[in-house]
Amino acid sequence: MSKGVATSLAVLSLLLTCAGVASAEHPYPHNGIFIEHGYVCVAKTEAQIQEVVLWCQDRGFEVEFLNITAFEPDGTMNPANYDELDHYIAVARQTDPNQKLIAYCSGSLRDHVNDPSTHQNIADVCKMFFDLYGVDGVNLDFEPFQADSQNYIDLYSTIRQTVGSSAHLSLDTTANLTWSGPFLNQVSTYFDWLMPMFYDTGYRDISNYQSWVIAGMHHHADNVAANCDVYPIIPTHKKSRWHDPNVENICTAVDAVEQAINEGAHMYSLGVWWRYDWKEDDEQMWWDCWMYRYSQPPAADFSGNPASGPPPLMVYFSDLSSGDPTSWDWTFGDGGTSQQQHPSHEYTSVNTYTVSLTAANENGQDTETKVDYIDVTSSGGTCHVGAIDLVGLYKSTGPPSGRGYYADSTITVHDQDCQPLAGVTVDITWSGCISGSDSDVTDGSGQVVFSSPVDPDGGTFTCCVDSLSKYAYPYEPGSNHETCDSIQNP
Asked: What pairs with residue 344 in β-bridges?
């Protein structure tokens, strides 16, 4: 059992990781939100469904908990609760294939947990959602909660046995200490996520609410089995007799959850209860207190090509920084500077030069310094043709007289060590069905691209390298991998 459940968690985690939502730098990117019931039981247009999916996508919600609502007293499910589920899933998959769609189903302690005659029916409904609708998981909620009871174990084991070990199951749980540690551990063996509900507490004091959240986080993290992780549910802003939004809200909940994590608790990511209660305050809190909470400055890095050679040496620098920098400040060691992302710089004197890049964004900056990175020497090497790659193309725009077949030739130049060599002047000749000559200089990757003249009927296009020239790098044609190349087009 545990091995299979762990496998299903790992698979879903991999799928979520591939989604690549904007929180790639966030340590907990796989957020989820509970969607209002009407979208799976009442006919909605494609545009209405797309609006929900894109709303979730824009806020970094990778998991949608689709509210199927309650089981019947006998454990079956009224088809009217989900008769639009297949349409919603089809449109959602087309709109964002990476979002995970989980069926949320609720029941009661009296009618379901404590009535064993309903257990198999409930399990069969869960299996139906996997088999017929292809949901990515089933989320269960049976309230109110009572202390440790074998009835819970009987129900959960029946569900797991019916849906199979690889099906993804999650359970909404009481956030207080109603269940003992050993019992919570036993329950968790049947689920991939336990989801403590940190909302509708009735607290009127922030410190008491946060203490309760912290205790609930530790209780779950300390006791879940190895196959299971904690996925807390935090509140949106709507006020009710159980919920004071000035006390329990996204920011106060996140602060408490983070404190618990800093004290050694663990979790998978965050869930939010509900979308239809989402207000302007929730929008602001979600970004300020969660999505931007772990934002980091960039990690600066760069490369330069070539890193050595005789003067004048043109070096092409590439920004390799992570963390989405928005500005760049280069110093090249000879008094030269640049604010471009990928600058080039010419060194005119023999020496070694230390290069620095400071990359910055709204969260800060980072500097990478490479000491004696550029070595301008008094002698160079040699150069030769590393490759000629021809591609046949057709020009269909412009005056009729200018339309027809042509070829692009990508020429790569190497130095004596077969490394790409920038700043080499390449002279070529076209022949075959067309004729002509051209000249250009290799870029930082040691490549240059030439386009042939156009021929209306096409034929054989041949490109030959006539010469290479770069100071202190004499051309050695005998080392060419090829000197000419041809292609038939069409």
From this structure: 316
Span 302-376: which CATH code? Answer: 2.60.40.10
Cβ-contact 376, 308 below 8 angstroms: yes
- One-letter amino acid identity for 250? I
Q: Which residues contact 486 (CB under 8 A, 6 or more apart)?
A: 390, 432, 460, 461, 462, 463
Q: How far is CA 343 from CA 169, 274, 305, 423, in A?
A: 52, 48, 11, 14
**What is the residue extent of each domain of the chain?**
2-291, 302-376, 383-489
Check the CA dihedral 471-475-481-485 and report its sign.
positive
Structure tokens at 439: 């000249």
DSSP per position, 54-71: HHHHHTTEEEEEEEEEEP
Class of domain 2-291: alpha beta
Pairwise CA distance, residues 371 & 352, whole Å: 9
- Three-class SS of residue 135? coil
- d(CA 384, CA 482) in angstroms, rounded, equals 9
Sequence-distant (6+) residues with CB within 8 A of 60 are 21, 22, 23, 26, 29, 31, 291
The CATH number given to 383-489 is: 2.60.40.10
Handedness of CA 395, 398, 402, 403 (dihedral sign): positive
CA distance 232 to 217: 8
CA neighbor of 438 nearest in space, from 463, 414, 406, 405:
463
- Within 10 angstroms of residue 436's Cβ, the number of other Cβ atoms is 11
Query: Residues 422, 401: contact at Cβ < 8 Å?
Result: no
- Gap between the Cα atoms of 452 and 458, Å rounded: 11
Question: Do the two domains 2-291 and 302-376 of this chain adopt the same fold?
Answer: no
Q: Which conformational region is residue 20 in: left (phi greater than 0), alpha (psi within -120 to 50 degrees), or beta?
A: left
Do 469 and 374 meet the contact criterion of CB atoms below 8 Å apart?
A: no
Q: Which of 200, 217, 289, 295 is nearest to 252 (CA)?
A: 289
pLDDT in tens, 247-304: 999 999 999 999 999 999 999 999 999 898 899 999 999 998 998 887 778 999 999 9
Per-residue pLDDT tens digits for 132-173: 999 999 999 999 999 999 999 999 999 999 999 999 999 999
